[in-house]
Amino acid sequence: MRSSCITLKPSTSTPDRVTTERTPDGSAGGLPDAVLWDMDGTLLDSEKLWDVAMIELALELGIVMTHELRRSTLGNSMRGALSKVFDAAAIDEPARDYDRWSQWLRDRVSELFDGAIPWRPGAVEALDTVAGLGIAMVLVTNTERGLTELALRTIGRERFTATICGDEVPAGKPAPDIYLAAAALVGADPSRCLAVEDSPTGTQAATSAGCPTLVVPSEMPVPDGPRRTFRDGLIGLDATALAHAFGVRDGSWETDTS
């Protein structure tokens, strides 16, 4: 049974905003109504902790976790990642015990998350910048609620208007469901939200939902495509860079090297 523990933070005060309107020609002259943040690999350098758990999981199933297999699971839902490992281990569908191995993985990652999780470079400052602009923020992660709650000890739940997890929507990333739900939580149209993602799976989910997306690749390259702006990382992210990424329209992509 899926959790229904989508978390909303009560609104307190509304800080002054830089303009939220685009320029008449649709260029990058304004800011989004909300920024929708991915977690693993975008805000937190937690994929390295997942690496440990996935390597051990593969050994439990009698195979070695190759670099290619691990990359294929990045950004996946729990079931999606397990399916790929089961495929690699040549485990037939009737013998795939998703419940058992999902719990095994939850328990192991919980152990690894029990403490401060490393940040991605520039992530804290990027969150502070967006907050300072008075833009609503939502944490949008394929990670299940229980593990996300552990990660929020590092990130700080008070930063977000809402948080939503992969086990709280009908289909996780790369389906658009989670980004559509995140936009609804703050009462915004997806086209008025800027997603920030690091993986192909998450980027596909965000752009399929209609969100302009700032892509900051970490472990795996993300292909070019509509609604995508590419940036080397979060260091130095400012209002101008946010407006630039938000201004990217359907059928276009740009690279931000600032």
Descriptive terms for the model:
258 residues, alpha/beta, Rossmann fold, 2 domains, eight-stranded mixed sheet, 8 strands
Task: Give an overview in words.
With 258 residues, this protein is an alpha/beta fold. It has two domains: 7-45 and 119-256, Rossmann fold (3-Layer(aba) Sandwich), CATH 3.40.50.1000; 47-113. Helices cover 37% and strands 12% of the residues. The protein contains nine helices and eight strands. It has an eight-stranded mixed β-sheet with strand order 1-4-3-2-5-6-7-8, with helices on both faces. The radius of gyration is 18 Å and the shape is globular.
Task: Quickly describe the structure.
37% of the residues lie in helices and 12% in strands.
Radius of gyration: 18 Å
Structural class: alpha/beta
- Name the shape in a single word: globular
What name does the CATH topology of the largest domain carry? Answer: Rossmann fold
Specify the oligomeric state.
single chain
N-end to C-end Cα span: 44 Å
CATH level-1 class of the largest domain: Alpha Beta
Number of separate structural domains: 2
Strand content range: 5-15%
The CATH homologous superfamily of the largest domain is named HAD superfamily/HAD-like
Q: Which blocks of ≥5 consecutive residues have pLDDT under 50?
A: 1-5, 10-29, 250-255
The assigned CATH architecture of the largest domain is: 3-Layer(aba) Sandwich
Helicity, as a percent range: 25-40%
* Largest sheet entry: 8 strands, mixed
H/E element order: EEHHHHHEHEHEHEEHE
Number of strands: 8
